[in-house]
Amino acid sequence: MSTTQISASDVKALRERTGAGMMDCKRALQESGGDMDAAADWLREKGIAGAAKLGAREATEGTVQSYIHANGKVGVLVEVDCNTDFVARNDDFVAFARDLALHIAASPQTRYVSEDEIPEADRQAELRIYEAQAADKPENVRPKIAEGKLRKWMEETVLLRQPHVNGDKYEDKTIEALRAELSAKTGENVVVRRFTRFAVGE
Predict the structure, then answer these.
(1) Where are the domains of the chain?
(2) Which class is 8-49 in CATH?
(3) To pair with 197 at 20 to 30 A between CA atoms, which of 33, 35, 129, 142?
(4) Is domain 61-113+158-199 in CATH 3.30.479.20, yes or no?
(5) pTM exceeds 0.70
(6) Per-residue b or e along 20-29, where b marks 16 or more CB atoms closer than 10 Å to that residue's CB
């Protein structure tokens, strides 16, 4: 480990930039010889490696963001949570929530945040429909066809499984991949808690 002397102001600046803890910021700066960009990368790599552990931390802070379509006929409210008020006010965190609201506005078929939210009765009902649709296929391939159609239905209705509608900006990454990246970057448990989509006449 480098013995580079790290100033408190550098640690504070890195914390503000990344949302990581003070001790992590100090260690990152020491590891990178005081280079701010390298330290931010070190934290990100460390965060990605430990992203699974973040899920155990309770997300009690966060933000509610909205999107109203230009025609005034579609609107979305979305709640995204994290661990600290510090990250809740972070520009990247707020931007993620806003872009999420925009995505939901453009995705009228979205009904659930995650697969866990799908009632088992709904899942089974969909599966029965797909099994019936595959009835004219050879018996040995029917279950695979039905399961494939069920997966496709979940991709259309489950928010976290969907690629963001702004594919160019987000390189066709799914909402879950973007959430995980933000979680790694901030060092906090980022949770898409709930959303409501309003459409005139629906």
Answers:
(1) 8-49, 61-113+158-199, 119-156
(2) mainly alpha
(3) 129
(4) yes
(5) no
(6) beeebbbbbb
